[in-house]
Amino acid sequence: MNVPSSETTPLEPYHTHFVLVPGSDWGDESPWLAQIASVLASEAPSVAVLVNGGEIAKKNVSENFKAKRPVLAMAGSGRLADTLATALRGEKFDDLARELVAIGLLQAIDLKESFEGLTQLINEMFSAQN
């Protein structure tokens, strides 16, 4: 039996399901998450939602784009989400933000937007996939 080392992250005891993937570093799961989302969505449209995010979130966004899945950045949540939302508005951006915006699969909405506005945007993103 493999005994977890002191460097492993324990499984959350209140979760009912887990998908264990190979890897030993944070971020190794990124391609797997995008692939699992594609399998679960099957032929149905799907959208990845980015709230805040740092270095690993950049990998997650890129992997979702590789899977042709649009990403919705929640502006006002901080870090990467705000950087991408700002770049979408044509304001300050870095090379990575420019590259991600150019792919054409990125949308943003402000956290202060109404639930109806969020619902409408997600429905538009789903419709664009059909």
Structure description:
It is built from five helices and three strands; from the N terminus they run H-E-H-E-H-H-E-H. The protein has helices at 30-41, 55-66, 79-88, 95-102, 115-128; strands spanning 48-50, 71-75, 106-110. It is mostly helical and 130 residues long. Helix 2 (55-66) links the parallel strand 1 and strand 2 (71-75). It has a domain at 45-128. The protein is 43% helix and 10% strand. The model has no long low-confidence stretch (mean pLDDT 92). Helix 1 (30-41) crosses helix 2 and helix 3 crosses helix 4 (95-102).
Write the layout of secondary structure elements.
Blueprint: H1 30-41, E1 48-50, H2 55-66, E2 71-75, H3 79-88, H4 95-102, E3 106-110, H5 115-128
Parallel strand pairs: 1-2, 2-3
